[in-house]
Write a structure and sequence with these properties.
Layout: E1 4-8, H1 14-19, E2 29-33, H2 36-45, E3 50-57, E4 61-62, H3 64-72, E5 76-85, E6 89-92, E7 103-106, H4 108-113, H5 115-121, E8 126-129, H6 133-142, E9 148-151, H7 155-158, E10 162-165, E11 175-183, E12 194-201, H8 209-218, E13 224-231, E14 239-246, H9 252-264, E15 268-275, H10 290-305
Parallel strand pairs: 1-2, 1-3, 7-8, 7-9
Antiparallel strand pairs: 3-4, 3-11, 5-11, 6-9, 6-10, 12-14, 12-15, 13-14
Bound molecules: prephenic acid.
Prephenic acid (PRE) binds at residues 8, 13-15, 54, 57, 63, 86, 107, 109-110, 132-133, 176.
Length: 310
């Protein structure tokens, strides 16, 4: 059986563009799904070897459906990170003019990224959420509930739609970050430009608990690139934290920080260590180098063995 990769479809989504960056997926079966849960379920059930899912947008922030699914579905690993520049156009059935637009189909994350433009140019619009950017546009052919859709610019190359407005994103440089997720597997070897993702809960509701969580990283010289709280869901005011740390789990400072979180947090989930999309080498101060940790451990072993101190 050929290997299958799941992605949010239909064909033409930014998620598909992210999957196109994965050399291992080239020439394999690509399965278009309707939501993140379905994509991850494909991985859990073994229907697909991996799924590409959006995790963060530079304007809208964390994709909550993804962060919550990763927290709640056991046995998954992030094995890669990919960036896609996102741009949007407003499209409609041929013949529609902008002043006729009352209702807009849009994926919620795309909608959030184009709100300023919509508020300025279609101030009284209503919004129908879609499962993806391409699905938003294709729904215009299936029913007339909406007059226009927010879609990727390439949509008009494949479908008979008219562009009513270009570059409608609130930030022309918006980027969405995607991750490739597989079943739990051994972590790939470090590249020197890696990221480690975890989700951790705080021990109890007390002053300084979050600070203590963050100290696990700061005292080992580990920089964080993402800290996002998500409600655990069982009671008001209870949160878990999604954390991206610079470095690889086999880096001594990262491993030591994770051990610290493990001792402190009632629930820690390791999501993976994987190469950063921007390939930027991890920066850290020399005193947190692997060699310094190893030397300290050797010193301890020597003390225990009764060797005289150098
Ligand atoms: O991949 C697509 O095109 C999508 O519709 C999904 C998605 C997302 O899930 O965040 C991806 C990127 C954009 O920022 C908006 C929507």
């Amino acid at each position: 059986m050929s290997e299958t990769y799941s992605y949010l479809g239909p064909s033409g989504t930014f998620t598909e563009a992210a999957l196109a960056q994965v050399p291992e997926a080239e020439g394999k079966d690509w399965r278009s799904v309707n939501n993140v849960g379905e994509a991850l379920d494909d991985v859990v059930s073994g229907r697909s070897v991996a799924a590409m899912i959006a995790i963060e947008n530079s304007i809208e922030g964390g994709v909550t459906a993804t962060l919550d699914a990763l927290a709640n579905i056991p046995g998954l690993r992030i094995i890669g990170e990919y960036l896609v520049r996102v741009q949007f156009v407003l499209v409609a059935r041929p013949g529609t003019t902008l002043d006729e637009v009352r209702v807009v189909n849009a994926h919620p994350v795309a909608y959030a990224q184009t709100r300023k433009w919509l508020d300025a140019n279609v101030p009284t619009h209503g919004h129908i959420p879609s499962t993806s950017n391409v699905a938003a546009a294709l729904a215009l052919f299936e029913n007339d509930l909406a007059d226009a859709a927010i879609a990727p610019p390439q949509i008009v190359q494949h479908h008979a739609l008219e562009v009513l407005a270009e570059n409608i994103a609130d930030n022309a440089n918006a980027v969405t970050r995607f991750v490739l997720v597989s079943k739990s597997a051994a972590v790939p070897a470090p590249t020197g430009a890696d990221k480690t993702s975890i989700i951790a809960e705080l021990p109890e509701d007390r002053a300084g608990a979050l600070l203590e969580l963050l100290e696990q990283f700061s005292t080992r010289g580990v920089n964080l690139s993402l800290l996002q709280s998500r409600p655990i869901g069982d009671a008001l005011g209870r949160y878990r934290f999604v954390i991206d740390a610079d470095g690889h789990i086999t880096d001594e400072r990262v491993a030591d920080a994770l051990l610290g979180v493990r001792r402190f947090s009632p629930h820690i989930l390791f999501l993976g260590s994987y190469p950063r999309a921007d390939k930027a080498p991890v920066q850290y101060t020399a005193r947190y180098d692997d060699g310094v940790f190893l030397e300290a451990r050797q010193w301890l072993a020597a003390l225990i063995a009764g060797e005289p101190e150098a």
